[in-house]
Amino acid sequence: MEASVLPFTLPSLPEGWEAENSFKAIGKTTQGGTTQRTLEPVGPYFLAHARRARHKRTFSEDDRIQAQERAKKVEDNDDSEISEPEDPMMLQRDAKDWKTQDHYKVLGLSRYRWKATEEQIKRAHRKKVLKHHPDKKAAAGRADDDNFFKCIQKATEVLLDPVKRRQFDSVDEEADVEPPTKKQLAKGNYYKLWAHVFKSEARFSKVHPVPSFGDENSTKEEVENFYNFWYNFDSWRSFEYLDEDVPDDNENRDQKRHMERKNANARKKKKAEDNARLRKLLDDCSAGDERIKRFRQEANAAKNKKRLEREAAEKKAAEEARLKKEAEEKAAKEAEEKAKAEREASKKAKEAAKNAVKKNKRVLRGSVKDANYFVEGDASAATIDAVLGDVELIQGKIDADELAALAGKLNGLTVPDKIKGVWKSEVERLVAAGKLKEGEAKTLGA
Amino acid sequence: MADNGVKSGPEPSERTTIGITFGNSNSSIAHLVDDKAEVIANEDGDRQIPTILSYVDGDEYYGQQAKNFLVRNPKNTVAYFRDFLGKEFKSIDPTHNHASAHPQESGETVAFTIQDKEGEDAAPSTLSVSEVATRYLRRLVGSASEYLGKKVTSAVITVPTNFTDKQKAALIAAAAAADLEVLQLISEPVAAVLAYDGRAETKIEDKIVVVADLGGTRSDVTVLASRGGMYTILATAHDYEFAGFALDKVLMDHFAKEFMKKNSGASDPRENARSLAKLRLEAEATKRALSLGTNASFSVESLADGLDFASTINRLRYETIARTVFEGLNRLVGSAVKKAGLDVLDVDEVILSGGTSHTPRIAANLRYLFPQNTRILAPSTEPTAINPSELQARGAALQASLIQDYEAEDIDQSTHAAVTTVPHVTNAIGVISLNEAGEETFAPIVPPETAVPARRTVHLSAPNGGDVLVKVVEGNTHIKVTKPEPKAKENGDSKAAKVEDADDSDEDDSDFDDDEEEEEEKREKVWKIGSTLAEAAVKDVKKGGKVEVSITVNSDLSIIVTAREVGGKGGVRGTLTSA
Ligand SMILES: Nc1ncnc2c1ncn2[C@@H]1O[C@H](COP(=O)(O)OP(=O)(O)OP(=O)(O)O)[C@@H](O)[C@H]1O
């Protein structure tokens, strides 16, 4: 073949791509990546291939057999799958009663029924034709033996017409799988038994794929999906196959219309019954479905768990709040007590200070008395007043600490000069500090 | 074929060869004129020659003349016998022989008892099906020889894909008895493909082809991979219900009923053998007329009870009453594609072959079944289509001309299974390319189902030039389905609603169906990039340049890759050893 031009663009070489001779072998073709098939020995290109393949070589019969065995088969002449014994009663059937005949059985497809593919039906039909064709029977001396052949033709006509086949499949009781009995269920196998039922019911579904019944390991979602699907089942099942015959002639117009109405009502009724039947089936099935119970329990357990968790959390929060409150109360109380103690301590201190002040003042007054008011002999009342007045003046100018310091200096002094000296320096200090004017407290400062 | 115990044929240089298609309903002969295959008309002017022999007063008639005798001389007329060759009585279907000589058991084979000699009291002969075939082929070859002006010695004959070795051997023997050397038996659908590919204007390309061979008594669908001009059958489907005769029957029933309605009290023409034969011949003629025109007449003298009958039918009415058959054919084609493990999106070409393929409705239905870019090769859909009735004979003639110079021994060796059975790759092999959006996509070079060894060369563009990467990968396809937005369900989803609605659900259902048909899901074929096999660099490509990539897959699956700039010098070459 010459080069063909493809409408495709090649990517640019990635940065840093390096290879010896610009080629990198990377992978290998997929394992088992070929199928042995047979080329049709036809046309100029095959002949070219044959020339290359033979290339002065001849092949033996053995090569042929081996090569043929390797080649994948495309023709399947094997119809062994369609072989079931023919019921002698069935062979006696009258083709006129085709409505009541089991079309699958007639073609030997009892095992397949609605599952039979169109190809299987065709092959089954062919097999039956080869066997039962009336001309063959006539050749064998049995003339007019075409009743069963007509049954075969009718069966094929129905089954190869998708519309008619659905009508027949709708009422094919042989394909029905009865719901399991209590007794069967008692032996276990719940899932297998019901799965079987729904697999059979699924043949009527307009929607595909139909979710499978599953087993004890199915997830909640799968199970819910299944029941949702089936409680809303969209079925093509219909019941016209069971219609009563409508008279064909034009004479009986009214009767014809009457029959048609009757049939239409009967179809509706049967359809409603079928829907109810399916619903009952589902109710029965779900009632015994351990998975639903389990999911409910699990859901309940989950709900309970939530509640307990919530309660625990609440309790914990309350406890925490209580503890917090207690701690706060305790702290407040402690703070209050501390404040009280402090208040008392300060009161005491104040009192002590007051007492100390009193005491120091007494020391101050005592010192001047001990110094006999700085006079010789008995001091006059005026002198005493003047000295004590100055002591009073000074006391008024100094604070408690200065008072204590002054008292400390005076305490224990008995010599009048020393006492006087202390007072004098105190007066001088106060004058220097500007607290006392020059000349004030002259009894002490002189 | 040389060792079938048949006497050896003529020397290659002394051969005169033709192509023959030998059907249950019709046969044709074709030869090559200036490299073009042409179907030969016989002395009656027929190119589709009914596969029928009839004996009247010791005279032998064949083709259309014999077919006409089905009315007056059915017992001594043999028809629809090709499929009985090489078969036992218990495995034949005598359905179509009901209105002519009946097949009977005769030892290991099938035979017909007819009066083929002159004279009222001459003893009837019992002719084996092989003998009948020999006599018929002799007439066919006789017509060809007369036309060509020299004795035809050899032929390529087409056979169905499910013809067994025993049937093939019986046919070769029957031909030999008619002094005809069978150069080769080739499959009918492959002959049809070759007829198309053998046209000078056809470019050989890799494609998936479906051949729908719709004949009179059977329909055969074949899916094949055409790879580099070589053909591999991937799947076949056969059907004996939906074929030309079923369409005849639809018209026969239609007109029989109309006849009885028009002539109240008249008998059913289907109940009387002679009336039935007339009905059938005219129904077939009407059917053919409906392939060309939108109206056709139906007229039979003395159809039943001495009453003449004339009527017309339009194409629309015909298509309505024949719907079951048309739909069956569509499903048959669909099932064959599926059997091949393919999707309709994988199919590049549908060839309609066989007489029934003239029917416009069938082609129209297939046009609808396949995507728009699939070529539907039928007269009503493709102006350049070859006459479906001539495809097989033309293909056979082409093949005959290709091998007429071979020694019989050479032909046998070349068609040997050791030559024909070869590995075919499962995955495609190609390179990574960039689409408009700059995303990596797979560019197939060696498609799946290609026989190895195989070599393919392609040109890819490098619009920006510079250094480009040739990344060789495996690839395979899958079908991407985009579902339409789900529509809100009308029926309430609660359980209760369902039960209450049940009463009028019949009407609901039909509404629902219609709605659903409107919304179609979108299906497309997409390539998936598989494992990487190799990388190669082509450097300094000039702007807007092209790169030639060639991939050779050897029979051991080792791969040779070469890449170079088209018109440039140098290039890369690398080998990938097999696993
Ligand atoms: N123009 C046409 N329109 C419709 N049908 C046609 C036309 N021409 C031929 N046929 C029908 O095609 C059928 C014959 O097909 P063909 O010539 O391919 O025969 P065949 O290959 O021998 O068939 P088989 O082997 O299946 O019996 C007949 O049913 C015939 O009526």
Automatic annotation (TrEMBL), chain A:
Gene Ontology BP term (one): regulation of translational fidelity
Main location: cytoplasm
UniProt-annotated stretches for the region Disordered: 53-89, 247-275, 319-361
PROSITE patterns, alphabetized: DNAJ_1, DNAJ_2
Protein origin, superkingdom: Eukaryota
Biased composition (Acidic residues): 76-87
Pfam families, sorted: DnaJ (PF00226), RAC_head (PF16717), ZUO1-like_ZHD (PF21884), Zuotin_N (PF26185)
Localization per Swiss-Prot or TrEMBL: Cytoplasm
A molecular-function term among this protein's GO annotations: Hsp70 protein binding
Composition bias, Basic and acidic residues: 58-75, 319-353
Coiled-coil ranges per UniProt: none
Entry annotated with the keyword Isomerase: no
Alphabetical UniProt keywords: Chaperone, Cytoplasm
Biased composition (Basic residues): 255-270
GO cellular component: cytosol
J domain mapped to chain residues: 102-172
Protein name per UniProt: DnaJ-domain-containing protein
Organism name: Parathielavia appendiculata
From TrEMBL, chain B:
Pfam family, one: HSP70
Organism annotation: Parathielavia appendiculata
Keyword Isomerase among record annotations: no
Record-level Gene Ontology MF annotations: ATP binding; ATP-dependent protein folding chaperone
A GO CC term attached to the entry: nucleus
Biased composition (Basic and acidic residues): 482-500
Keyword annotations of the record: ATP-binding, Nucleotide-binding
Disordered: region residues: 1-21, 480-525
Extent of Acidic residues compositional bias: 501-521
InterPro entries named in the record: ATPase_NBD (IPR043129), Hsp_70_fam (IPR013126)
Protein name as it appears in the record: HSP70-domain-containing protein
Keyword set includes Nucleotide-binding: yes
